[in-house]
Design a protein that fits this description.
alpha/beta; TIM Barrel; twelve-stranded mixed sheet; about 30% helix; binds S-adenosylmethionine; binds iron/sulfur cluster
Length: about 300
């Protein structure tokens, strides 16, 4: 359905947990939410969202693969909501074990977050000595038959700004998309602006990247001769895309969050046993979706991402 600004809201991101086995510095380390919905509860909510026009669903976190029942959640959501795309965003640490079960459960796209191919830098960013294991997870994803595998990287000046070249090489060698996402400011994080590497800076550094037609998507895609995959640039800060936003977010405890960059949430749990009321409440919340984020305003940064799922 359309929100009050005429945007078609058809993309639901479900955070299945706010727990995580990594400690990425830019992500925020809020204590995890105590309550987590069951596969059946996620499915009931997903069905109501589908009735309100949701066509694409992403399972994220926290780290979604810390939930051992993630394949059961995926299968239940798929059956209840029949989305055109069912995707998972993961840090990849447990993906070697989960790639096949997720594909069998009906997941058709996987995003792996990976900010560097240097083991020491990886440890410095995530707090975990896990690069080889994540790379095995990525390989398992490439072999599991998903329609699309994407790698998402956040570049930070003075931390991993030199990682772009090796990450772009992945798109030359493998049929995957490597996407660079601009660092978004956390709460009380005025230094983020200085650390952010913008989409424009990446393009200036790699002039061989040729733009691909398309648009309307949050990412702008590029390729180069001989590449099997694509390079994507996602610029929420320097090229704000709120006017095209199609997203709504469900948190792991059953609250719905209409905008990543605004604090408001609305509790859907009171409507769990009332499908008609749940549908009406979802429509009401979609109509309350604000015009956009306030990253450029004082105090307008992101709440902790581990609770929201990006
Ligand atoms: N744990 C999973 C993962 O890392 O892919 C899923 C959740 S994580 C919050 C989703 C995405 O948010 C990751 O790709 C991460 O890099 C991104 N992210 C977290 N904090 C960010 C920030 N301050 N700016 C930009 N992206 C951020
Ligand atoms: Fe965990 Fe993902 Fe946040 Fe890193 S970005 S701390 S892996 S939730």
């Amino acid at each position: 359905m359309k929100d009050s600004f005429g945007r078609e809201i058809d993309y639901l991101r479900i955070s299945v947990t706010s727990r995580c086995n990594f400690r990425c510095a830019y992500c925020g380390a809020a204590p995890p939410l105590t309550e987590e919905l069951s596969p059946g509860e996620f499915a009931a909510f997903a069905a109501a969202f589908a009735r309100a026009g949701i066509r694409k669903i992403r399972l994220t976190g926290g780290e979604p693969l810390v939930r051992q029942d993630l394949p059961a959640i995926a299968a239940a959501v798929k059956t209840a909501a029949s989305p055109e795309t069912l995707a998972v965003t993961t840090n990849g640490y447990d993906l070697q074990r989960f790639a096949q079960p997720l594909a069998k459960a009906g997941v058709n796209a996987v995003n792996v977050s990976l900010d560097t191919l240097d083991p020491a830098c990886f440890r410095a960013i995530t707090g975990v000595d896990g690069l080889p294991r994540v790379l095995r997870g990525l390989e398992a994803a490439l072999n599991a038959g998903f329609q699309r595998v994407k790698v998402n990287a956040v570049l930070m000046r003075g931390v991993n700004e030199d990682a772009a070249g090796a990450l772009i090489e992945l798109a030359r060698r493998y049929a995957l998309d490597i996407r660079f996402i601009e660092l978004m400011p956390g709460e009380d994080d005025p230094a983020a602006d200085g650390r952010r590497v913008t989409a424009g800076e990446i393009l200036a550094e790699y002039p061989f990247l040729e733009p691909l037609p398309g648009g309307g998507e949050t990412a702008e895609y590029y390729t180069a001769p001989g590449f099997l995959g694509r390079v994507g640039l996602i610029a929420p800060v320097s090229r704000r895309f709120c006017s095209d936003c199609s997203r709504i977010r469900l948190l792991s405890d059953g609250r719905v969050k209409p905008c990543l960059g605004q604090p408001e949430t609305y509790d859907l749990r009171p409507f769990l046993s009332d499908p008609g009321g749940l549908y009406e409440e979802i429509r009401r919340v979609i109509l309350l979706k604000p015009a956009g984020h306030r990253f450029s305003e004082p105090g307008g940064g992101l709440p902790p991402m581990n609770r929201i799922g990006g």
